[in-house]
Amino acid sequence: MFTFLNQYGFEAQRLKAVLFDMDGVLFDSMANHAEAWTRAAALHRLRMTREMVYMNEGRTGSGTINALALEQWGRAATQAECEAIYATKSEIFNSLPPARPMPGALDLLNALRQEAIGIVLVTGSGQRSLLTKLDDAFAGFFVPERMVTAFDVRHGKPHPEPYLMGLRKAGVSAGEAVVVENAPLGVEAAHKAGIFTVAVNTGPLPDDVLAHAGADVVLPSVRSLLEAAIR
Ligand code: MG
Q: Could you point out which of 13, 28, 81, 184 has its C-alpha 20 to 30 Å from the C-alpha of 63?
């Protein structure tokens, strides 16, 4: 499993756990997030383009809102503002057609489980609708003891804290794990945590952005990772 990573400098025989990001990796949900963020921001006097959504992906909701507020209002957002904007964003998100599981994701999880490789979720999301959907789409794979969400961390991605916590939950060291990420800030967080990082470029950003963020390999999709892994 993942022996193809040997050519990129990762000793695949050491692999004990894979740490998965959620949005844009397990769920094909980023188009919905982009739609919800751009509309919610406009309703709260902030400007956020779709590209900005993809570039900020991985931050917690308040992390994203504060980054915009500092840049456009010249001050941090208050907690009440963060809560109001994130509530609007979540409401719009939940009104959109439900995001589908990413093609290949369930097969990849099953293949890892067959090899007894640990699976941990590391997401900046605090979106309860998606977190609860995890168990519908990927039954039995994600339980709180093996999940890191926006509710668990002080510093969101791109800080390494979420991935360091993911390693602890997996009970493995950085050299025994691989991260699967789609977002530049998520890749940066994983790279800073010292973990070999596979970027799956499921969005509109150029591959370079993910490589510069610290990805060790950039693949075009989750299915391409599955195919490389089981080849
Ligand atoms: Mg993501």
A: 28
98 close to 134: Cβ distance less than 8 angstroms? no
Query: Given this model, what pLDDT does residue 231 score?
Result: 83
Average pLDDT over residues 8-28: 96
Confidence of residue 110 (pLDDT cuts 50, 70, 90): very high
Ligand 1 centroid to 57 CA: how many Å?
6
Measured between alpha carbons, how far is 88 from 161 in angstroms, rounded to an integer? 27
Spacing, Cα 23 to ligand 1 middle (Å): 4
Identity of the residue numbered 187: V
Contacts of 83 (CB under 8 A, 6+ apart): none
**123: CA distance to ligand 1 center in Å?**
7
State how far the Cα of 192 lies from the Cα of 166, in Å rounded to an integer. Answer: 13
